[in-house]
Amino acid sequence: MEKRNRYNPQPFKPLFPIETMKILVTNDDGIYADGIFFLKEALEKLGEVIVFAPDKERSAVGHALTMHVPLRVSEVFLRDGSRAYMTNGTPSDCVLLAMLMLGKPDLVASGINRGANLGDDITYSGTVSAAMEAAIHGVKAFSISVAAFEDVLYSAGAHVASVIAQKIVENGLPEHTFLNVNVPNINSPKACVITKQGKRIYSDRLTERTDPRGERYFWISGEPSAHAEEGTDIDAVAKGYVSVTPLHLDLTNMDALKTISKWFL
Ligand code: MN
User: Fold this and answer.
1) Could you tell me the distance, in angstroms and rounded to a whole number, from the CA of residue 60 to the centre of ligand 1?
2) 206-256 tens-digit pLDDT
3) In angstroms, what is the span from residue 149 Cα to ligand 1's centroid?
4) 120: containing domain
5) Ligand 1 centroid to 151 CA: how many Å?
6) In a domain, 84, yes or no
7) Is the pLDDT of residue 262 over 80?
8) Is 48 part of any domain?
9) Residues 6+ apart with CB under 8 A from 255
């Protein structure tokens, strides 16, 4: 077997050019979704963008990591001919893989998601979880979604994404905090408002059917109710504003902590 000449090593390919901001872009709608392309284009003005995304739609996978199948990564080309990384993993896998393979970025942007991520829905969201994964590792991050599934106006979302990214770069973010951004699906959204996470009340429906082999199968569906408390993400988007919610990772209920600790006195 031929020994590699130690004085003639493989050329070192720096994955990010030195002294530019490194921006990792991912999503949960899959690497060929329109939204991620708009996000990549919007952020290219600010730094070096690396796209690292799932090979298929992984919406509503939440914060899942892949544990029981091998992760594959391949280099693919986006519609503008630029290079990107595609994996069979989840959005959170994408953030971890990118950080471990390419080094920590300065900013992670996740989206632009097709469909809002508001209220309790964020706990199911792969888009939001990717930003959360970055925050766990001390990397500044935001997730961005447009509140529509049909005729989605990604260009408005892209403009918002560049504004949010600039604000994060200028001001930084508190520790373990990331931003969840939702853009109404209108051509000229009103100003950005800072909101708190609202409550979405779903009328969940269970549909039961029988497959061609005679086995029962189920389908869970539901529509969120229109009730929106003032000051919430849901309310802001309903009124045509861009909602910006600062989220953090500590799920502890501080009020309940006092009450529950009395149980064991
Ligand atoms: Mn999605």
Assistant:
1) 7
2) 999 999 999 999 999 888 776 789 999 999 999 999 999 999 999 999 999
3) 10
4) 22-199+229-264
5) 15
6) yes
7) yes
8) yes
9) none
CATH assignment of the domain containing 83:
3.40.1210.10
Structure tokens of 22? 């490194």
Q: Give a yes or no: residue 257 inside a domain.
A: yes
Q: What is the DSSP string of 82-111?
A: -EEEEESS-HHHHHHHHHHHH---SEEEEE
For residue 206, the surrounding DSSP H or E stretch is: strand 202-210
Closest C-alpha to 111, from 23, 27, 24, 25: 27
> 118 pLDDT exceeds 60?
yes
Side-chain half-sphere CA neighbours of 85 within 13 A = 24
Q: How far is ligand 1, taken at its centre, from the CA of residue 59, in Å?
A: 4
State what percent of residues in the chain have pLDDT above 90.
87
Question: Can you give the pLDDT at residue 226?
Answer: 66
Report CA(68)–ligand 1 centroid distance (Å): 23
What is the pTM for the complete model shown?
0.90
Structural domains counted in the chain: 1
Would you tell me how many other CB atoms lie within 10 Å of the CB of residue 13?
Answer: 5
Helix (H, G, I), strand (E, B) or coil at 39: helix
* CA of 10 relative to ligand 1 center, distance in Å: 39
Q: 168: closest CA among 154, 181, 156?
A: 181
pLDDT, residue 7, reads 45
Residue 92: exposed, middle, or buried by beta-carbon count in 10 A (0-12, 13-18, 19+)? Answer: buried
Measured CA to CA, the distance from residue 40 to residue 22 in angstroms comes to 12
Quote the CA–CA distance of 106 and 108 in Å, as a whole number: 7
Name the token pair of 68: 């029981």
pLDDT reported for residue 19: 60
- Burial class from Cβ neighbours inside 10 Å (0-12, 13-18, 19+) for residue 114 reads buried
Length of the chain equals 265
